[in-house]
Design goal:
The protein is mainly beta. The strands form 4 sheets. Strands 3, 4, 6, 9, 11, 12 and 14 form a 7-stranded mixed sheet that branches. A 5-stranded mixed sheet has the order 5-15-10-13-16, with no helix packed on it. The chain has 2 helices and 16 strands.
Length: about 210
């Protein structure tokens, strides 16, 4: 984690004592002026990024195969009880409609990418829906339960998003009210044509 100075014009509207923004290491190398403005607006909204043990937001590079594996430990976390759970390597305690997580990532090659979630959802959380945004694109869908409790993880393809080469940002939140908890999320994956994410041994897909 590094502390990066934003432009004076962007930071001026913040409280006088706040002259620096906490951003994932490397983000400043590729962030656009609009993305900086969006980030400053979010900070000004009074919902700052949470700092949680084991959670280390950073600019996520694509693998040699072009697949982007956005892990929970690399996500920025915003909200109330929502947190990173080191023992499970997931984002959990996702109870609030204003809770959200975000990643900054580096795309090597532009084109369509299949999007997958690696997650768990207990039976008592049935009926929840997610909203995943990348720039002006978004995917929405229901979150099928994966078992009676929160210990059963599965992987699910949720759609396709077109990515451009360079630095981009993904934001995941609930779509509508949350029943119980939204999701226990380990990874969001973006896979280019002909490639599949490498999941943990023994993982099952929906």
């Amino acid at each position: 984690m590094s502390v990066v100075s934003a432009s004076a014009a962007a930071v001026a509207p913040l409280a006088p004592a706040t002259s620096l923004l906490l951003m994932p290491e490397g983000l400043e190398q590729g962030i656009t002026a609009q993305q900086m403005a969006d980030l400053v607006a979010f900070v000004r909204s009074g919902n700052p990024r949470k700092e949680v043990a084991g959670n280390k937001p950073q600019l996520v590079p694509a693998g040699k195969d072009g697949v982007l594996m956005l892990a929970a430990r690399q996500a920025e976390i915003y909200g109330g009880e929502i947190t990173f759970e080191p023992g499970f390597q997931n984002i959990g305690m996702w109870h609030g409609v204003d809770d959200q997580i975000a990643w900054s990532f580096q795309v090597g090659r532009a084109g369509p990418y299949e999007v997958y979630l690696d997650y768990a959802s207990a039976a008592n959380a049935a009926g929840n829906s997610f909203l995943l945004s990348v720039g002006d694109q978004s995917l929405t869908g229901g979150i099928p339960t994966t078992g009676d409790d929160w210990s059963h993880y599965k992987q699910m393809r949720v759609g396709t998003i077109n990515l451009t080469a360079g630095t981009d940002r993904a934001i995941l939140r609930s779509k509508g009210p949350i029943r119980g908890a939204l999701i226990d999320l380990r990874t969001v994956a973006f896979a280019p044509p002909g490639k599949t994410p490498q999941w943990p041994v023994g993982a099952s897909t929906i």
